[in-house]
Specification:
- The protein is globular, with a radius of gyration of 20 Å.
- Helix content is about 35%, strand content about 20%.
- By secondary structure, it is of the alpha/beta class.
- The chain has one domain: Rossmann fold (3-Layer(aba) Sandwich), CATH 3.40.50.
- A 7-stranded mixed sheet has the order 1-2-3-6-7-8-9, with helices on both faces. Strands 4-5 form a two-stranded antiparallel ribbon.
């Protein structure tokens, strides 16, 4: 099935961008998706993550520590009352290399229910910091929601997977969320991936050509979930981060909707076609 490119560009991308913009200035001018209003900010709660952090080796805490050190704000929740649609957007980090080197954590049991399978410990520790905030904003700020969208870029896309499953498994809002993410790494061990796929049917991952982040951590310990939407936003051989930028992903999506060039008109008999600039 072809992706709804207009939806990704005009609804999901602005939300993912806004998740970064609120990091250090909680109320900046935001270009939100049409019809959506901000319900509140996703804020880190170290106390809710304290138990899980205490069980982790210091090396396995580094990803969470990097994200929290940048800002206690992890994104935002939006609501479109007319469409009864909630949208939760989770940020990544300012610099991908601050956390991508810490991708070798062994899988650990999903905290809310060990029978659900195993996930990447570093990403789970990040989600533990915001699960209370996400629950409060969705349950109390988006009452009556008939549709829940979840997005994130980079590390935020990995956390979005855990958040989406948590909405089904623990929040029990009566709505199966839809995930639409950008540049997400692998977060699920095979057993968790199977349970995720059974619970959430709509999950699309936008992946730019030559972006290294969606290729880590490597299988077979981890695997991706959802349907890949491949784009070619561009890359620079001497700048490996360029292919990972959210704006590069927007360029790739825009290329999907550009009309294909029509067939060239046949040259008149006896006249060579022009070859000018």
């Amino acid at each position: 099935m072809l992706p709804d490119t207009d939806f990704l560009i005009n609804t999901i991308y602005p939300a993912a961008t806004a998740a970064y913009l609120v990091m250090n200035v909680p109320t900046p001018p935001l270009s939100l998706p049409s019809g959506f209003q901000m319900v509140g900010l996703l804020k880190a709660d170290p106390q809710s993550a304290a138990h899980a952090m205490a069980l982790a080796h210091p090396d396995q805490q580094r990803i969470a520590n990097v994200v929290v050190a940048e800002s206690s704000i992890f994104g935002l929740v939006l609501y479109n009352q007319a469409a009864s649609t909630a949208l939760i957007a989770i940020r990544g980090t300012k610099t991908v290399w601050d956390w991508i080197e810490d991708m070798d954590a062994v899988p650990v049991s999903y905290l809310a229910d060990s029978s659900a399978g195993q996930v990447h410990m570093g990403f789970q520790l990040v989600y533990e910091h915001i699960c209370r905030s996400a629950t409060d904003l969705l349950e109390n700020g988006c009452k009556g929601a008939q549709r829940i969208l979840v997005t994130g870029h980079s590390l935020g896309a990995a956390v979005a997977v855990l958040c989406g499953f948590d909405i089904v498994h623990r929040m029990k809002l009566g709505v199966i969320p839809e995930l639409h993410t950008f540049a997400g790494p692998r977060v699920a061990a095979p057993d968790f991936a199977n349970n995720f796929k059974a619970a959430i049917k709509t999950c699309e991952r936008v992946v730019n050509f030559m972006d290294v982040v969606p290729q880590v951590p490597v299988p077979p310990l981890y695997e991706q979930v959802g349907q890949e939407v491949a784009v070619k936003g561009g890359f620079k051989p001497l700048d490996v981060t360029y292919a990972h930028h959210l704006t590069t992903y927007l360029s790739g999506l825009q290329k999907l909707i550009q009309p294909a060039p029509g067939p060239a008109a046949p040259a008149a008999q006896g006249v060579q076609p022009a070859v000018g600039p």
